[in-house]
Write a structure and sequence with these properties.
It catalyses: 3-dehydroquinate = 3-dehydroshikimate + H2O. Belongs to the type-II 3-dehydroquinase family. Its EC number is 4.2.1.10. GO terms for molecular function: 3-dehydroquinate dehydratase activity. Catalyzes a trans-dehydration via an enolate intermediate. The chain is globular. The chain has about 150 residues and is α/β, with parallel strands linked by helices. The longest helix is centred in the last third of the chain and has 17 residues. It contains 5 helices and 5 strands. It has a 5-stranded parallel beta sheet, sandwiched between helices. It has a single domain, classed as Rossmann fold (3-Layer(aba) Sandwich), CATH 3.40.50.9100. α1 links the parallel β1 and β2. The structure holds 1,3,4-trihydroxy-5-OXO-cyclohexanecarboxylic acid (DQA). The site of 1,3,4-trihydroxy-5-OXO-cyclohexanecarboxylic acid has 9 residues, from loops.
């Protein structure tokens, strides 16, 4: 089963806390951590990050036939990109959203999440564990409806 992990603007500049470990990971450290954990769970992952809305949309559109599911942290686009929402609805690949932090703990304008309407699951405010919970959830979803199996056979 293969997942495409898409991270939106500014995620490449952030630092992340690994559960139970002192210190912080940079973006490449995050990718190494996620790849290791997903490999241990028997999943293949591919990563994409962009600061540009159109590039994120191109990546979502190209997911069909290449990945069984999308794990998306849209960054600030979560709050207003109807275009990313449309791409998720059109691409035919199930997507799960991850937001590292809880929007309620930030400015009121972050309470709206338009991209969430294109996602079949949401892991919000769990830090980087959200990516792993999203992967496990997607795997379960795909096993239940058989799409991943169909895709692999094709
Ligand atoms: O870029 C980010 C990070 C974020 O996507 C998160 O994962 O918590 C939440 C967004 O509101 C913010 O703009």
């Amino acid at each position: 089963m293969k997942f495409l992990v898409i991270n939106g603007p500014n995620l490449n500049m952030m630092h992340f806390t690994e559960p139970g470990v002192a210190g912080q990971l940079d973006y490449n450290g995050l990718l190494d951590y996620l790849e290791l954990c997903c490999t241990q769970m028997g999943m293949e992952v591919e990563f994409f990050q962009s600061n540009h809305e159109g590039d994120l949309i191109d990546e979502i559109q190209s997911a069909a036939g290449r990945a069984d599911g999308i794990i998306l942290n849209p960054g600030g686009y979560a709050h207003y990109s109807v275009a990313i929402l449309d791409a998720l609805r059109l691409c035919g690949v199930p997507a799960v959203e991850v937001l590292l932090s809880e929007p309620d703990e930030h400015e009121p304008f972050r309470k709206t999440d338009v991209v969430s309407f294109g996602c079949q699951g949401h892991f919000i405010g769990e830090g980087i564990s959200g990516y792993l919970h999203a992967a496990a959830y997607l795997a379960q979803l795909l096993r239940l409806d058989g799409s991943a199996h169909t895709h692999l056979v094709m």
